[in-house]
Amino acid sequence: GLVLGIYSTEKDEGAAQFTSAGDAFDRLVSGKLRELLSACGPSLKKGKTRIFHGLHQDFLSVVVVGLGKKNAGVNDQENWNEGKENIRAAVAAGCRQIQDLEIPCVEVDPCGDAQAAAEGAVLGLHEYNDLKQKKKPVVTPQLHGSAESEAWQKGVIYAEGQNLARYLMEAPANYITPIKFAEHIEQKLRSFSNVKVHIRPESWIATQQMGAFLSVAKGSAEPPIFLEIHYLGGANTNDPPLVFVGKGVTFDSGGISLKPSSGMDAMRADMGGAATVCSAIVTAAALNLPLNIIGLAPLCENMPSGKANKPGDVVRAKNGKTIQVDNTDAEGRLLLADALCYAHNFNARAIVNAATLTGAMDVALGSAATGVFTNSSWLWTHLYEASILTGDRVWRMPLFEHYTKQVTDCPLADLSNIGKYSRAGGACTAAAFLKEFVTASHWAHLDIAGVMSNKDEVPYLRKGMAGRPTRTLVEFAARLSQDSHN
């Protein structure tokens, strides 16, 4: 199979405008492709496809995909590079057409941006079907031509990183338990000599005095794990690292504050924070990025049992602060409190945590963008600029004192784990709670609850867990490795 791009033309512009690969192929078949295209109706809109058979013996099926306007570039209203997004969406649509025809191999036109084309192909074909007997045929995308093979390869690595996060999030909670999650990541990192993985057991967590984390874990029969990854890609192993922290609740029933049963199965993806940051580190290692990264993932289940946290219980975090657990389903912040305290041991350049933290985040932004709460404009700028390139967007949210008051005004302890006006500004009160465990001057909290899954909003991702914003984290780390100012 072959996927070729075509730009949309304004009215009355006449002949359709192919990419250079499209032009070359049209010449190869003596203008037949252009002829057929003009014969089959109006010009191709972006993201739409036309399929032609029997044009050339090497490519029995050719899919032409609409790329939208040529030289689209950055759209300031949309906060992303529209040209790149158009390529991702178009190539994904084309590759799926080839998959429907059960053709095992597809060559992809780089469309002027081979990295974006590779991302579209690899992300667009991904599907979790490990546990099904009937699987879609495997299609291997390859670059058409040899011009941009380095950029293509980079795109493949970025997309495979996001697909790893999608896999971990989508897999059932009885398959991806805390220990299985840790072992899966360890196995992915085994081949890199500059990576150390520590799988810390419950006894270690206890000696670290992570009382908040342990209070959540104790309700489940599944033992907790604290996963710690050291990627030493920097010129000097002593250079201050970027520290990633990810919430790793492998199943979240809500605990004694039980969630409603409808849709609870999606809570197998409540370890999305851990999945995205660990996948970002696997990707950074594959790209051999020249910086040091440390990844921390507290992993456990949140379950109701005779041993579980009860509403009103008070627990003590690693830094000595006491927390009244008013709602056992506000558990992610308890794991992160202890992990963020521990993150301060590493003299970090920056601490970035990701978590499917609050339903309120989904209410605020839906799946358009990840909410970022940060005390550092420098950090915000890097995350924002990275997200424009990846198309996996971020949006800045407030860390006002206004919200801090709502979590520190607590009857029995230093902090309550929910805001005193319960639902108002829930994503912001959660962030204010986390801020109580941070003294570093460059910290960002990414609330990824809204971008956890995809229905049809992102056209190059199939329905299911989205693995977002893995590529933005990778691009952010790549930018940080080039920025020596901090």
Architecture blueprint of SSEs:
Layout: E1 2-7, E2 17-18, H1 20-28, H2 32-39, E3 49-56, E4 59-66, E5 74-75, E6 80-81, H3 82-100, E7 105-108, H4 114-125, E8 140-143, H5 149-170, H6 178-189, E9 195-200, H7 202-207, H8 211-217, E10 225-232, E11 242-246, E12 248-252, H9 272-287, E13 292-302, E14 313-316, E15 322-325, H10 332-343, E16 350-355, H11 359-365, E17 370-374, H12 377-390, E18 394-397, H13 401-408, E19 415-416, H14 426-435, E20 443-447, E21 453-454, E22 464-465, H15 470-482
Parallel strand pairs: 1-4, 1-7, 7-8, 11-13, 11-16, 12-13, 15-19, 16-20, 17-18
Antiparallel strand pairs: 1-2, 3-4, 5-6, 9-10, 10-13, 14-15, 17-20, 21-22
Please describe what this structure looks like:
The structure is a single chain. It is built from 15 helices and 22 strands. The strands form five sheets. Strands 9, 10, 11, 12, 13, 16, 17, 18 and 20 form a nine-stranded mixed β-sheet that branches. Strands 1, 2, 3, 4, 7 and 8 form a six-stranded mixed β-sheet that branches. A three-stranded mixed β-sheet has the order 14-15-19. The longest helix is centred in the first third of the chain and has 22 residues, at about 150-170. Helix 3 packs across helix 4. The model has no long low-confidence stretch (mean pLDDT about 95). It has about 475 residues and is an alpha/beta fold. Strand 3 (about 50-55) and strand 4 (about 60-65) form a beta hairpin.
- Number of helix segments? 15
Tell me the β content. 15-25%
Share of helix among residues?
25-40%
Measured on Cα atoms, how large is the radius of gyration? Answer: 24 Å
Helices and strands: which structural class?
alpha/beta
What does the average pLDDT come to?
96
Outline the biggest β-sheet: 9 strands, mixed
Through-space gap between termini: 47 Å
